Amino acid sequence: MGKKKEVLVVLGAFILSVFSVAAVAGQVAPPAAQPVLNLGVITAGMDVRGVPVQSGEPVKLQISPRDKWFELKPGSEKEFTVKVRNKNEAMVSASPRIVVQPSGEYTLEKEWITIEPGSAELKSGEEREFTVKVRIPGDAEIGQYSTQIVFTNDTIPMPYPVPFPAYINSMRMSIHVWEPPKITIQPQYIRDRLEAGQSQEYEIQLENRGDKAIAINPEVDGEGSHCMGPGCPGEIPADWISIESPSKVDANSKATVRVAVNVPADAKGRYEASINLNMDDPSVERWNHEVRLSIEVWKQPTEPFREEFSVKSGENVKIVISANQYGYDKYSDVAGDNEEPAFDVTLRLAALDGGVLEPEAVKTVKTEHISLGSGFLPPRESASGGMYHVMSTQYCETYEVKNATGGVWSLEILPRNVERFEYTIEIGG
Fold first, then answer.
1. Minimal CA–CA distance to 206: which of 142, 141, 291, 293?
2. CB under 8 A, 24+ apart: contacts of 61-64
3. How does pLDDT run across 83-113, given as a tens digit for each residue?
4. Which fold has domain 32-177?
């Protein structure tokens, strides 16, 4: 009698499961925008007899590695192993498949990847190895490809609609499809400091190391700066820039692209632009076709900076003024004497004879930081035969007034060839 009850219970469970499946099948399919229901919540695995086990929790497997990143050239392939361990008490069915998420600029094709075995039943505590083979076709586009290898349908339950399911038992894979670039660009970033009304020409050196000519068509990128906010640079107007360039770079040869910038007399501030070389070289990724141009526009002031300070009768006054120039602030690090920073200093006090004092600098200090490498220098300086390169220079001038007349003094500083400067006033001592 006990055996009959057991048969009836099993039969009843079977009938209930059939009706449950029929009920689910009869439901209207959810809209395309809604995520797929988590099937792993309904059936988490199978027990040791092969009977489905009902569970309210998704199955979680131990997968190693969880992330995989590597580089492959078009036409090449790679094979690696993924270890999957079942840490659940019940048997779990693992059926790995490729899930390509609709994100990223480049889309990986499922046919590029094969996984063996195609499925496996993992007993509690059992570990299996899956072999993943990646084959990149010869005509694949250079770029970054991402995908997932999903081993079960279990997902993280979400209380709201999501664009695509978040699979629990999966590993992320990222493939950088690349080729050694046939053409090199030097420099890819030009930074300079120009005075308003000044013109400057820049050279972009291209070298084609391939056996075929590569077409180029440089132009100013009209997308503008991606920076937003009050501290962001403005976009260099297209009419400031003119480009002189050949239409191609011959095989195993070099070419020069000349970019001229003419800054109007009324300009001021930071400006940026991109020069898109539009190279017909598939080995170079899209964003590497560009040369970024950044310029700081300044004006030589005609009115001095003024600051007032109080001095007691008989005190000594020391004023130290300094300014810095950096190698990467100028397109060329070769500066003439007329480009070095200098200061016209005036002290005013009504009690002085004539009211004006123009002190001479009692000490001038020039500090240079030297690099034995090229650092941030432009290509024509990097290519020079010299070993030592000036990376930055500090100019410092000291002025003194001994046994000063008491009162409120006015310090006036008129800088020359200076974008910014700093000063200290030391009273007493």
1. 291
2. 61/85, 61/86, 61/87, 61/88, 61/92, 61/94, 61/122, 61/151, 61/152, 61/169, 62/86, 62/87, 63/151, 63/169, 63/170, 63/171
3. 999 999 999 999 999 998 777 778 889 999 9
4. Immunoglobulin-like (2.60.40)
Token pair of 349, please? 């006090």
CATH architecture of 305-427: Sandwich (2.60)
Q: Is 397 exposed, middle or buried (0-12, 13-18, 19+ CB in 10 A)?
A: buried
**Could you tell me if 286 and 144 are in contact, meaning their C-beta atoms sit under 8 angstroms apart?**
no
* Residue 308: half-sphere exposure toward Cβ, Cα within 13 Å: 6
Same fold, 32-177 and 183-298: yes
Distance, in Å, from the CA atom of 384 to the CA atom of 389, rounded to the nearest integer, reads 10
pTM for the whole structure: 0.60
Under CATH, which number does the domain 183-298 receive? 2.60.40.10
Domain ranges of the chain: 32-177, 183-298, 305-427
